[in-house]
TrEMBL record:
<dbReference type="InterPro" id="IPR014204">
    <property type="entry name" value="Spore_V_AE"/>
</dbReference>
<dbReference type="Pfam" id="PF03862">
    <property type="entry name" value="SpoVAC_SpoVAEB"/>
</dbReference>
<keyword id="KW-1133">Transmembrane helix</keyword>
<feature type="transmembrane region" description="Helical">
    <location>
        <begin position="54"/>
        <end position="71"/>
    </location>
</feature>
<feature type="transmembrane region" description="Helical">
    <location>
        <begin position="27"/>
        <end position="47"/>
    </location>
</feature>
<protein>
    <submittedName>
        <fullName>Stage V sporulation protein AE</fullName>
    </submittedName>
</protein>
<dbReference type="InterPro" id="IPR005562">
    <property type="entry name" value="SpoVA"/>
</dbReference>
<feature type="transmembrane region" description="Helical">
    <location>
        <begin position="83"/>
        <end position="112"/>
    </location>
</feature>
<keyword id="KW-0812">Transmembrane</keyword>
<keyword id="KW-0472">Membrane</keyword>
Length: 116
């Protein structure tokens, strides 16, 4: 059943993003930014973790989980280190994903040549 709910929740997040692009004529960059902020707000309100528990990858794979990770890391480190922890927490939690994106993008750029 977890696969069903992951599909439904992840698909719903994507549908919301698509509707924002089609109905509100927003650019993909605007929609991405809005979804990250929504994920951050939901985590700040304590609502994103229950969504992850319910939907699993349906909540952790979409871009909303990046906002969740930013706030989650900042809040966890702020409890331990105060104001400085807010900044270090953001970098600590998200650094692995960003580092992986940079490394894999570099490797892809070595293998593939752009047409243009």
């Amino acid at each position: 059943m977890i696969f069903f709910w992951a599909f439904v929740v992840g698909g719903l997040i994507c549908v919301i993003g698509q509707l924002m692009m089609d109905g509100l004529k927003l650019t993909p960059a605007h929609v991405t930014s809005i979804l990250v902020v929504v994920g951050a707000l939901l985590d700040g309100l304590g609502l994103y973790e229950p969504l992850i528990d319910f939907a699993g990858a349906g909540a952790t794979v979409p871009i909303t989980s990046f906002g969740n990770a930013l706030v989650h890391g900042a809040m966890a480190e702020a409890e331990q280190h105060g104001l400085v922890g807010i900044i270090t927490g953001i970098f600590e939690i998200t650094s692995a994903g960003i580092s992986a994106a940079i490394v894999f993008s570099f490797l892809a750029a070595l293998v593939f040549r752009p047409k243009g």
